[in-house]
Amino acid sequence: MSENERQGDRIAKLLARAGVASRREVERMIADGRIAIGGKVVETPNTVLEHLRGVTVDGKPVAAPEPTRLFAFHKPQGLIVAERDPRGRATIYDALRNALPKDAPRVMPIGRLDFNTEGLLLLTNDGGFKRMLELPANAVERTYRARALGEVSQAQLESLIEGITIDGIHYGRIDANLERRTGANQWIELTITEGKNREVRRVLEHLGLQVNRLVRTAFGPFLLGDLPRGQAVEIKKHDIGKLRSSIKGAR
């Protein structure tokens, strides 16, 4: 039977949708023997289920999916966007303990920001919604402001609108503009839609610039604005619905 003919979804997808963890993290949890069905440890993330009844994580039953909630967090520099770091560095979850409201569910980051990148990071309890915003095919815009050492022309930046290939990796459309110069540095605003690993830094380095500060200022319609560093705010359900509808309508 083909995957399209099977009834249900893979357990990793269902658990991510229920807000247990990201699909990748669920796969690690399965490998560690932390997930079971009816008391029997799940051995593969390819297990297909129609529902989560009888599924436990660390011996605790998985609750039914909660309504989608979305939070905007101003990530400071010096935090890892992960639940844990093998090198013992602080993670966003250390900061979120005090930043999120007490009734906040378990949340997952939508996309990632590098250790030294700061700015707007969206967090949700809905794995399906997270995937919707992350998929390059949905072209959800992310805007950054980069402070970089070196010289670059507006013409060079405008050429990025056609995309660029660096070391065999193609980066799609980038809308980039010079903002201002401060001493030997230049501030550049860039809007991307793919969010590939270290995309902004790699593209600017390819142009001969040395990025010394990078701030994400927007993700889709949501702006960093004056949200204090290290703080989080919940996004209204109405705005979540509008974004979800706009993405589905653009397909």
From TrEMBL:
GO molecular function terms listed in the Swiss-Prot or TrEMBL record: RNA binding; rRNA pseudouridine synthase activity
Catalyzed chemical reaction(s): a uridine in RNA = a pseudouridine in RNA
Coiled-coil parts of chain: none
EC number from the UniProt entry: 5.4.99.-
Signal peptide segment: none
Enzyme superclass (EC): isomerase
Segments forming domain RNA-binding S4: 9-67
Membrane-crossing segments per the record: none
GO biological process: enzyme-directed rRNA pseudouridine synthesis
Keywords for this protein: Isomerase, RNA-binding
A Pfam family the protein falls into: S4
Family that this chain belongs to: Belongs to the pseudouridine synthase RsuA family.
The protein's name: Pseudouridine synthase
Source species of the chain: Alteriqipengyuania lutimaris
Lineage of producing organism: Bacteria, Pseudomonadati, Pseudomonadota, Alphaproteobacteria, Sphingomonadales
